[in-house]
Amino acid sequence: MKQLAIIALILCITNNFAVEGYQDIYLDREQTIRVHSIFCGKNLNTLNGLKPSYVYTNTEHIEKGTYYLSSAYGNFSYTFNPISGKSPKMLLARGVLSGGKTKKEDMVKELCIVGKFKGLPKALADKIDVIVLKADDPKWSLLMKQLAFFGKPAFAKGVYKDNRTSQSHDAYDQQVHDANQAYLKKLESFFTEKVSKVAKRIPAKLKKAIRYAHQEDGFLKTKKYRIINKPAVWTATSEKRYEDKLRSQANEKAWDKVIQENFDWLFQLTGKSNKLKSTQIKKLGPVEWNARAMQQIVTVSADFVDGKSLELDFVVRSAKVDAELFDSLDFIKKKSEAARTTLIASQRKVRPIIALPKTNKVKAYDPTSKVNIFFSDFRSKKLGDTYRVK
User: Which residues, 6+ apart, have CB-to-CB distance to 221 below 8 Å?
Assistant: First the structure.
């Protein structure tokens, strides 16, 4: 009987109502907000077909006008209009626009039960309610977050975050960015400490490499390679061993050629008869970032008796660091907002504020090679690039 009473109340408007566009309505965070739990459907003949909905207002009742909302599925709007002869506190016509549509003819028209009235089934009436949120209610943010699944209200055109939350999120994201920058600066400080230790060893290594070049220059003229005989009996195993020996010897000859070319490169610049007087660090360059790794140039010179000086720029590098440390503030904000609004619980994690490293675990990789190929990296460069003769 109760459902019949409702049908009698609304039957005359079920398929004969209009929804027009009206003024835009936005929320004021600093005023009391009312969250109206209502039920809507294309018609009210079947109560089981009604779907729950939420509308946020600063007024006691839902007003004639357009309310804007945003959800993980996109933005949408509700345009409410009173129904002739019906109380707007109980029934309203609603037009829904979604998917970027803005034209009135694209509206999905619905009827909404927005208030309790006589004859409404208790199970439905109990769900039609208004939650009142004072501006300073400690549960304000929690409740709004819980209701966000049904759509977040607009506080201004295109703005679906209240000013207090925006300020709080902005402040947090700024802290994340500042902490990242401080972390990188601390890494640079640690890296400089490690580089200074590596640099102290390079002059001695350079002296050893020059001494080795004088000692071994021309070794190819006298070096004899062992003769590799073909196997007496050809089998799959003997053939493989024979080919491995040939390959190994070919590699040895190739490396020997590189070693001699390094010697030739050195003596072409300094002269073979020139005697080494000293080696020392000339300067340490600033820390630079390249492809998420730190690098620092250590310039070491070898001074010779005739007054010539060979300067070599050794590049000391670190391991790569986390790419997120280089995120701009704008990118941090975008990622944080995505994490705060995602429907996937496992991804709903906002980046924590990183703490400064307390111990120096930064690695500084020694750029010097083995003594016999010490000058290979420089030999492939041009004069004046990573080496200079004065």
Answer: none
Instruction: Please say whether the beta carbons of 283 and 180 come within 8 A.
Output: no
pLDDT of residue 8: 43
Q: Residue range 156-170: average pLDDT?
A: 91
Q: Which residues lie below 8 Å from residue 54, measured CB to CB, with a gap of 6+?
A: 35, 36, 37, 38, 147, 150, 151
Sign of CA dihedral 69, 120, 22, 41: positive
Q: Which residue, 324, 321, 330, is CA-closest to 349?
A: 324
Task: Say if residue 19's pLDDT is above 80.
Answer: no
pLDDT digits 0-9 by tens, 188-221: 999 999 999 999 999 999 999 999 999 999 999 9
**Domain locations along the chain:** 2-160, 167-389
Tokens standing for 101?
């549509």
**Structure-token pair, residue 341:** 């609004």
Query: Does the model's pTM come out above 0.90?
Result: no
CB 43 within 8 A of CB 111: yes
What is the maximal distance between C-alpha atoms in the chain? Answer: 117
Beta carbons of 131 and 56 less than 8 angstroms apart = no
Question: At 7, is the pLDDT very low, low, confident or very high (cuts 50, 70, 90)?
Answer: very low
> What are phi and psi for residue 94, nearest 5 degrees?
-135, 140
Share of the chain above pLDDT 90, in %: 74
Model pLDDT for residues 232-264, shown as the tens digit of each residue: 999 999 999 999 999 999 999 999 999 999 999
Q: Which amino acid is at 212?
A: Y
CB 186 within 8 A of CB 179: no
The tokens for 4 are 């019949």
Distance CA 30, CA 58 (A): 10
CA gap 83, 20 in Å, rounded: 12
Dump the DSSP string for 123-154: HHHTT-EEEEE-TT-TTHHHHHHHHGGG-EEP
Least confident of 73-82, 191-200, 337-346: 337-346
